[in-house]
């Protein structure tokens, strides 16, 4: 009987040891599963943040594209209106032509008497009115032709904004003789409905800031204007 009792005790001890091993394995597996679940949750959260950031960027880009499309539609409508026959009146119509580039790279067309009297404008190779040609179109043209020089824009209230260009890229800007970020300057002038502009070749000798493409500046300035309109 004692031998059987000892054998049974050994078996019970072996069973207890096996149960301890199983318990330790289950505890280790549980900790490992918790770590896996935590890593999975962190990965899902990171992916969600990345998707949200991309969605915001796409929304901003879509808004900028819509604004550019509206401007193109307005320009196309104004061009069609300018080509449509005008109603006859008792007074002889005045010949008004929008500025255009001639063979020498200058704008040809009607010139105001005040422009001829202003030496800073009369010596310019390109000049015109914002009402006839938008500033974004002028900057895009200067970028395509890789012009270098200073483009000045003056509003009806006398406000003056200048852009320094080097090979078609914007390398600096000033607002009322104060250095300003090019995006801020564009935000200022893109809201003007009327005014005049003139461009003079190679007025500066050094770069004010790193070159930035006109297209990227216009997109960023347009995006900020749209955001301001939505917030305000």
Helix content: 55-70%
Could you give the distance between the termini? 96 Å
- The amount of beta strand, in percent, is 15-25%
Total strand segments = 8
Summarize the main sheet. 6 strands, antiparallel
| Biggest sheet, spatial arrangement of strands | 3-8-4-5-6-7
- CA radius of gyration is 35 Å
Question: How many helical elements?
Answer: 6
Secondary-structure element sequence? HEEHHEHEEEEHEH
Mean pLDDT: 76
Principal-axis shape equals: rod-shaped
Structural class of the helix and strand makeup?
A: alpha+beta
Low-confidence stretches: 86-117
Offer a concise description of the structure.
With 232 residues, the chain is of the alpha+beta class. It has helices at 2-83, 113-117, 119-122, 135-144, 182-190, 214-231; strands spanning 100-101, 107-108, 126-129, 149-155, 160-166, 169-175, 178-179, 195-201.
Give a structural overview.
This protein has 232 residues and is of the alpha+beta class. The protein is 55% helix and 16% strand. The protein contains six helices and eight strands. A six-stranded antiparallel beta sheet has the order 3-8-4-5-6-7, with helices on one face. Helix 1 (2-83) crosses helix 6 and helix 5 (182-190) packs across helix 6. 16% of the residues are buried. Residues 86-117 have low confidence and may be disordered.
